[in-house]
Amino acid sequence: MKYFRKITSGIMLVAVPAFLFSQIKPLDAMLTEYKYPYEVHFIDLKSQDNVLKMAYMDVQPQQSNGKTIMLLHGKNFNGAYWEKTAKDLSDKGFRVIIPDQIGFGKSSKPKSYQFSFSQLAENTKAILDKLGIDKTIVLGHSMGGMVASRFTLLYPEKVQKLILENPIGLEDYKTFAAYQTIDQAYQSELKNTAETYKAYQLKFYYDNKWKEEYQPWLDLIAGWTLHKDYPQVAWDAALTSDMIYNQPVCYEFKNIKVPTLLIIGTRDRTAIGKDRAPKDLQPKMGQYQELGKKTQKEIAGSKLIELENVGHLPHIEVYPKFFSALYDFIK
């Protein structure tokens, strides 16, 4: 029997076949049962009176070109969604390092942790130090773009080139949206379901057009909501939302001196706290067709590739166009 569930997410209203959600499997906080596309390694970190494990993949090329590239994931993702990007880069001779940030993916989910982009950058640097990598190209998507920007500002000597793919943080969300406490953010995170996640992704990532290849990246975060560990995951998600809101990087783009490429899907309207902003300001937030150009002017000598009618996830939605822009910049 076919039937539909109506989904109200606070973002949009959409009818989705209920059977699409029936195959999502519960996933524990560390994604123990979820197999990543490449072998996962761990580095032990002693940080803020915590003993933590940070996961990463290290994809080695068969014939090295002598270059390394590090891929940094977004807030609603982990390193697994770089699978095709990593394969094609490896085929081109690049060594590919793919961390899961603390609080994400297969890395530790600490209860007491002061999340900051500087701390995440330091944690990321620890992986490179362990592997003896002195120089790397850095690619950051979404929240990973904020991590990549902070990493570049802190450790410019380690960065050969910087690529920002639809990064968040191109504007200061505090100037639009009201503050919410971490406790309020946590309660909001606890309400997430497969349905609300899909409604959000349909609007901001895929323009209400769902394809089968998008499902794995929904399954990963939706699976967490079905497991008893979800409060642990939701707490770190609240902490990282607070980090994004309170620690803008947009004022420091002028200080980035390394060669930089912006890959911007111009249909993207992602903006943190948009639902808390006054109604008249909401349409002004997340205007990526304007924010890309503005950021290019801020970063001296940077290059901008605009992908028309593309949302928040170019490397999933229009992979060939994304990879062509990326490879032309780093080859």
TrEMBL record:
Transmembrane segments: none annotated. One of its GO terms (biological process) is acylglycerol catabolic process. Keywords: Signal. The keyword Protein biosynthesis does not apply. It comes from the Bacteria. Residues 1-20 form the signal peptide. Residues 68-269 form the AB hydrolase-1 domain. It holds the Pfam family Abhydrolase_1. One of its GO terms (cellular component) is membrane. One of its GO terms (molecular function) is monoacylglycerol lipase activity. This is Pimeloyl-ACP methyl ester carboxylesterase. It comes from Chryseobacterium oranimense.
